[in-house]
């Protein structure tokens, strides 16, 4: 690479900080690690020599850049005052280097911030805090190992709020990936990785608990489950996924948890209740415009929409009993299904082109 041709002028301010540090003991060694946060979310903990190694790697790669000074080595044990001064200096170093886009996006910096380095050791076991939005819009903070997978994080959440096993199976951990759309996490995904990857979002967290249940009329649901379904139903009415029409005012008068049974009884009569609605996308049945796919207990619906997602009046509903085959085209990002037609016409295939084919 010709270092003279590297553009250092493109800069952006990143909310990176080192607010604190802690002492780690491992393999008969005791040392200090500095906790690096992005927008208040812990990315990693690094010791001083890892900062020094990063500094050397960056200076070799970006010869033409005037790097800020890294705090010097000290052969003796540092006092708390000296450690805090080192913390502030390292924070300033990261602020200035990460502000330069080409440096921030370099392999060395990305590995330092997000990867496992040689000195990481038990870092996957180190505790991190995750903020989770509950269906009643309350925030819950749980402390889990950094490398914890989704099913273990969900178990910690259930234990912390005292959710019984029967209720827990009707809900799960979701990630907000688009406005008004959440993706259900797979059991072996790493929520902390998603949490820090979304540091630039305006929301306090991208993780939430939402229902994973389509038959909402079952009588065996606990009071806790009904309360959460009540709050999520309000959310779905506000999003326009449940079509309230002239009943909207009546629903609003019942928006109190003490009247959840009345609210849900009314909501059950409305079109869209219990459906999971996906973002608008193309479908090969429409030459122009998009569709919104909705998965419900009894059917799969395609709502006609404009290319910007504005709903149109046409809705095509496919009962599950009439869908005879389905396939997922991972490469083409499409959900394909075959359905039977009346009047002895042959079955037909449809393709829905969406990145959420395997949610």
UniProtKB/TrEMBL annotation:
<dbReference type="GO" id="GO:0005769">
    <property type="term" value="C:early endosome"/>
</dbReference>
<keyword id="KW-0446">Lipid-binding</keyword>
<dbReference type="GO" id="GO:0007165">
    <property type="term" value="P:signal transduction"/>
</dbReference>
<dbReference type="GO" id="GO:0006886">
    <property type="term" value="P:intracellular protein transport"/>
</dbReference>
<dbReference type="GO" id="GO:0032456">
    <property type="term" value="P:endocytic recycling"/>
</dbReference>
<dbReference type="GO" id="GO:0032266">
    <property type="term" value="F:phosphatidylinositol-3-phosphate binding"/>
</dbReference>
<feature type="domain" description="Ras-associating">
    <location>
        <begin position="126"/>
        <end position="214"/>
    </location>
</feature>
<dbReference type="InterPro" id="IPR000159">
    <property type="entry name" value="RA_dom"/>
</dbReference>
<feature type="domain" description="PX">
    <location>
        <begin position="1"/>
        <end position="120"/>
    </location>
</feature>
<dbReference type="InterPro" id="IPR001683">
    <property type="entry name" value="PX_dom"/>
</dbReference>
<keyword id="KW-0967">Endosome</keyword>
<keyword id="KW-0472">Membrane</keyword>
<protein>
    <recommendedName>
        <fullName>Sorting nexin-27</fullName>
    </recommendedName>
</protein>
<dbReference type="InterPro" id="IPR037827">
    <property type="entry name" value="SNX27_FERM-like_dom"/>
</dbReference>
<dbReference type="Pfam" id="PF00788">
    <property type="entry name" value="RA"/>
</dbReference>
<dbReference type="Pfam" id="PF00787">
    <property type="entry name" value="PX"/>
</dbReference>
<dbReference type="InterPro" id="IPR037833">
    <property type="entry name" value="SNX27_PX"/>
</dbReference>
